[in-house]
Amino acid sequence: MKTRQTKLIDALCDPKTQYVVPVYQRVYSWTQPHCEALLRDSLAAAVEDKEHFVGTVLYRPAAEKDGVLPLTLIDGQQRLATVALLAAAIRDAKRDLEGGLPEWLDRCISVEMEDGPQPKVILSRPDRPTFAAVMLNRELPDEESQSELVLENLAYFEAVLAEPDFDIDLLLQGLEKLTIVEAELDGNDRPQLVFESLNAKGMPLKTSDLIRNLLLTQLDFEEQVRLFKKYWEPLEDRFDAIEEAEKAERKSKIGIPPSDRRVEWEGLALDAALHGWLVENSPTARPSTRAGLYDAFKNHVAENPEMTLEELLTSINVYCNRFADEFESDEAKEHINWAIGKPEGFGFGGR
């Protein structure tokens, strides 16, 4: 791994690179408090006239395209995307004001490709269309397809920048003083081990996200996209829809009040289905909790090297779709109870 300390703006504004969030990465998740901290750090750096360290950006280079080197982001996507979003808000706020913009600002927002400008940061779905529209000043996607957090954070930045006493030039000075550690993985580094380490230290990934990452990080980008779209993305979409439709009713049916925040509902349905697949396919894997599901799944994959990745994904896809079809069955309920941690679930004295 190669590392160096550099200014965030220098890394983000390099005209020969583009940051790409891979299909297996988490969606954009920064909220207003993160945006407030970014503004606070930037303004403080300007007032104190000192550099301010804001974190690490970790990536792996991919194959060059149109003279631009794609950098597959492993850590730092939230910060880079939010700085690019802030840059777009500054661009729009300064459009009708006196005084020019620094030459680096546009390069934080977009990069020139053979088929025209593209966003400097390519987010994962479902944030990509909304973020790209904001970056390139294009029409937003249909309302049901819009990324709420991207638009909420943009609106927050726009409101702050529009305040009569806010000093945009001071903010620009501060952004130039933010520093990062830029870390580049080489061919000997294993991205999945990095994900596991980051997951232990930072904002935890869902178990299903870790399993997806385990399966896809070992592939080149094009194969990741192909397998993700064919096998995994349909499952995420289907189980997200099930979760939204069933959440309130499910809480009522199993006797847990909707206000009980001890139960982590996000990703529960797909975790339950993946647990069902593991129980059906492994004679020994019986994780007692959702926290143990990833390690049990990882061990099962390691113990069955003869199964190709596409065969594995096909098997998971078929089982999980059947699970979704029979979501109200007794078997599905056992796995859901296991995921919640109820005694009648698998691993708690159940079947």
Report on this model:
With 351 residues, the protein is an alpha/beta fold. Helix content is 52%, strand content 13%. The chain is built from 14 helices and 8 strands. 33% of the residues are buried. The model is unreliable at 254-263 and 345-351 (pLDDT under 50).
SSE map:
Layout: E1 2-7, H1 8-12, E2 17-20, H2 32-48, E3 52-61, E4 69-75, H3 77-94, H4 105-109, E5 110-113, E6 116-119, E7 121-122, H5 128-135, H6 148-161, H7 168-175, E8 178-184, H8 191-201, H9 207-216, H10 221-253, H11 268-281, H12 293-303, H13 309-325, H14 330-340
Parallel strand pairs: 2-4, 2-7, 3-8
Antiparallel strand pairs: 1-8, 3-4, 5-6
Helix pairs in contact: 2-7, 3-6, 9-12, 10-13, 11-12, 11-13, 11-14
Output the number of helix runs.
14
What percentage of the residues does DSSP assign to strands (E)? 5-15%
Low-confidence stretches: 254-263, 345-351
The number of domains is 2
Mean pLDDT value: 85
Written as H for each helix and E for each strand, in order along the chain, the element string is EHEHEEHHEEEHHHEHHHHHHH
Biggest β-sheet: strands ordered side by side in the sheet: 1-8-3-4-2-7
Count the strands? 8
Helix percent band:
40-55%
Rg, nearest Å: 22 Å
Q: What structural class do you assign from the helix and strand content?
A: alpha/beta
Major β-sheet profile = 6 strands, mixed
Gross morphology is: elongated
- N-to-C CA distance: 47 Å
Organism: uncultured bacterium Contig1772
Protein name: GmrSD restriction endonucleases N-terminal domain-containing protein
Domain GmrSD restriction endonucleases N-terminal: 11-216
